[in-house]
Amino acid sequence: MQWFIIGRDMHVLCTPSTDLPQTLPIDDSGDSLGQEISITNNSAVGTYDFTTDPRHPDSVYITEGNYIAFRDKYGKDRLYTIMSIEGDEEWTVHCEDIGLDLINEYAVPWDYTARSIEDTLSVVLHDSGWEIGINEVSSYKRATKFEGTTDSQLTRIGDVCNQFDAECEFAIEMKGAKVTKQVINIYKTLGEDKTQQRFIDNINLISLSRSGSIEDLITCIRCYGKEDENGNKLTIADISYDDGRYFSPKGEHRIYDREARNKWSRFRAYDYEGQGEFDGYIVGTFEYDTDDANELLNRGLTELKSRNDVKVTYEASLYDLRADIGDTVQIADNRFQEKVYLSARIQSVRNHYTVSGQDSGVLANYKILTSNPTSQVTQIMEQLKDQIVSVKSTEITYQIGSSGVEPPEGQWVPNPPQTSPGQYLWTRKTTTYTNGSQTTEYSVSRNGDDGKDGEDGKPGPAGQDGRGVRSTSVTYQSSSSGTTIPTGVWSSSIPSVSAGKYLWTRTVIEYTDDTSSTLYSVSKMGGNGTDGKGIKSITEYYLASASSSGVTTSTSGWTTKIQTITTSKKYLWNYEVTRYTDDTSTTTSPCIIGVYGDKGATGNGIQSITNYYLATASGSDVTTDTSGWTTTVQTISAAKKYLWNYEVVTYTNGNQSETALHIIGVYGDQGKPGKDGTDGKDGVDGTDGISMILSNEAVALPCDIEGNPLDYSPATGTAYVYKGASDVSASATWTVSWSGMTGTWTASSRTYKVTGMTADVGKLTIKAVYSGTTLTKVFTVTKALKNIKVNKLSAISANLGEVETGKLTNKYNGKKALVIEENAIEFYNFVKNGEFCGRIRGNNFSPDVGQNTIYVELNYGIEFVGKVPGSPDEYTDMAYLYPDGFAFSVPFYHYGKNMDRVFNNLPDDTQGTIDRLNGRIQAFSASVSISKANTWETQVVKFPKAFEKAPIVIVQAQTGQSGTLVWADGATTTQFTLHKYRPSTTAFGIQIIAVSD
Q1: CA–CA gap between residue 160 and residue 157 (Å, rounded)
Q2: DSSP 90
Q3: Interior angle at CA 444, CA 443 and CA 446, nearest 5
Q4: Is the CB of residue 629 less than 8 Å from the CB of residue 651?
């Protein structure tokens, strides 16, 4: 057996094989491993489970998302996606055959007029890698309508096949070791409607059990659809229907079954005396989410047909199942007084490729062939006997070969030929079975080459004559012992061996020296095995303890309910007791399954998910920057055929992520109206599915600063079990287990409510058992620590590290006072009216954009206040900065000199002259450089402020600049040209004085 491990690019990474021991080991033996294929929702869906060694070098290719491919027992190439990997010393790998594109992606709602199945599935298969292969219903056309938004693409494919009365399977096509195509083959019915295999008790039928029930039996059904805006539900009252057996008069919202009423009517005990036209029916109710009365009638009719008689099922365990999924088999069980002869369809199979004899299957759609032995049954029995395989004959032949590895291709002879030194003698054993099949086994021996001549030795005594094989005789005998050689008559033909008896094989070899040797081998014909031992129950025991070691099953305090761990009892221990059907039991050693942890850092959860939609004419090159995106689904049209979508996920820490853009809908042009198709035959009655629903599956509870939930009222819900559309919750058996939280479970109403949490994430596991089916759902509660609801947060003491914030606003007495923006701090008048006063932010220095500065924006001015030494504690005015000047309320000093005295003593005309000179004189310095030494260069230098007239410019090099020469010319109101010379290329400083008249 060979497998191919394939990467996401569909190229082979490694090729494990049972014939090559050094390759990656794969083991699919065991009840839960192997290839399982089942017909579910009109689709043949497969899984493949196996174990492997993570220490093997090729185990690096066993990773989620890669593929495993092989050719199965039916000769079909299969491709499975690796979905999950579990384990430590050994990996258990789970794979599914349809890939992420159909399992994980949701289908969109639609309402299509009559079209082919290929056109209908085009939206589902778009960009999934799958395409339609075989299509046996290509001529069918159906109108389909689906309103659900949570159906997976796989579920939608099955629903569409149901509408077309078809079934499908998923397959691949390979060229060598490369996958070239992934196809969905659509059939009217999977498998062949002819008997592919037969099973009989005590031969290849291991067990057959029957179960029957009339718990859900009805003979009439009420039908209800969607509610309108007034709360009135849709019915079938406007439709008149009658096919002879089933009927619904116009004005009625019920469908009646005449034949079922005659069989099950309560009036039957009185010879139907007093039974009116609509009396004696057992009435049930059916609801379906549709606004189409015809669809409601068809769905209701299907529901009635599935519940109008005894529901009988058979469960069979079969040996050596070779029939494919969907094929028909026949079963004969003669063990009991009521003998059973029936045909059935293969509903699911489990195949193993690393072990033989373990393949099994589950059957459905049973049909009773006869209740008494007849010639038909006799014929079945004879055909079954023909299928029992045993050894018919064995042939041993010989041939000389030149290789000890490859068997020779010449003629095989019944007697061993004479071999020369260096040649190989091959022995071939051919076994022929009663079903016509054969197996061939080879063994090989070598005649050694002659050695080199040695030195002459002393003459020795005369040796004995050499010995060769003259003939070989193989005979057989049946015996009750597997250790003592039988003493009866040996036969050249293989005798019939009963179950539990032994078949002895004797090989007599005659040699050329008239001696002989006799070899014996023995095999046992297997009998019926002893009764198997199954698991009756598994009981879990729990203990919260302060000890991390030394705990045994004898330690006091064990309970069957999970105990709460605390700071004083940090360790949660567990062991389990398994009780078997033979009343024996085993107990595991106690182990720690949980440890109380100290409060961790604030978690990061999902705060919101926003979907964006865009209808466009382009099927490519669309980005999130393309205009027109909305959060509501846009309508596609002939002009805008493609509906694009992406999601923005916002987390509780303020971060966001975006999903990749993808097309979720394509507008199909309306084709020409087709002719009305003929009415199809009624489909095979389907069985009701059993499902479990929680009204509330997950909730996040807002918490205070300590992480304590503020309100537990959202953490409640109700559990339901449905059989088809019928609520059967009251008939189910319920069990619950709490983890990380406490609460109440009301069995009568199946309601659950959380009352406390002991961890950041709590889980309630709810199990329901109905009609032998076990269903499990988990209700999850998490602490939402982002939105801290407190009246006042006075202080936070924490090492927060680097913190990024958005906009922070502080108010005083209800008025805005201070706002910290992303790039500035704003100030507001909280004393008067809360209006804007000014802001501070970083910026470039205006005269020299290469320098950084603090940039202050003022609405009017700045008032400086301070405490003068010796004055009262109150702040006093010091200075004012106005839009047109600077005013001081205290003396102004310049390098210790009181400049008030200077300015106050200046004459008015001098003061005016100084004021005028302030706008006509500029003195400043600058740093310049030379690109080439000992060469005159020029450079444009700008004035700090523009002059009204071009000034006179005086420039000189700063002291210490030996050999440096500078002079200026070409002055304008904004700049001048600097001429510079320097013996070296190092930078130097200059001083400039510019005076304008």
Answers
A1: 5
A2: S
A3: 165
A4: no
CB–CB of 816/823 below 8 Å? no
Length of the chain: 997
Query: 153-163 and 117-125 are packed helices; what angle lies between their axes, rounded to 10 degrees?
Result: 180
The token pair at 218 is 């009805």
On the question of pLDDT at 685 being above 70, the answer is no
Contact of 633 with 644, CB cutoff 8 Å:
no
CA atoms within 13 A on the CB side of 597: 9
Is pLDDT at 789 greater than 50 in this prediction?
A: no
- With a cut of 50, say whether residue 486 has pLDDT above it: yes
pTM of the model: 0.36
Which pLDDT does position 93 carry in this prediction? 95
CB count, 10 Å around CB of 399?
Answer: 19
Main-chain phi, psi angles of 918, to 5 degrees: -60, -30
Query: pLDDT digits over 55-109, tens only?
Result: 999 999 999 999 999 888 888 888 889 999 999 989 999 998 765 567 778 888 8
Which residues face 144 on adjacent strands?
112
* In the block, residue with structure tokens 């004419």: 617
Q: Per-residue pLDDT tens for 40-58?
A: 777 888 899 999 999 999 9
Distance from C-alpha of 701 to C-alpha of 713, rounded to nearest angstrom? 9
DSSP state of 344: E
Find the angle CA(477)-CA(478)-CA(479) to the nearest 5 degrees: 120
Asked if residues 966 and 924 have their Cβ atoms less than 8 Å apart, the reply is no
Residue type at 373 in one-letter notation? P
Asked if residue 640 has pLDDT above 60, the reply is yes
CA-to-CA dists, residue 764 to 543, 592, 758, 873, angstroms: 19, 20, 13, 65
Q: What is the pLDDT of residue 757?
A: 92
Pair of tokens at residue 86: 């579990």
Most confident of 251-260, 571-580, 840-849: 251-260
Burial class from Cβ neighbours inside 10 Å (0-12, 13-18, 19+) for residue 236 reads buried
CB 140 within 8 A of CB 677: yes
CB 48 within 8 A of CB 91: no
**AA identity, residue 288:** Y
**Between 764 and 377, residue with greater pLDDT:** 764
- Left if phi > 0, otherwise alpha if psi is -120 to 50, otherwise beta: which for 621? left
CB atoms near residue 524 (< 10 Å): 12
Q: What percent of the chain has pLDDT over 70?
A: 80
Q: Where are the beta strands (DSSP E) in 560-661?
A: 571-580, 585-587, 591-595, 606-616, 642-651, 656-658
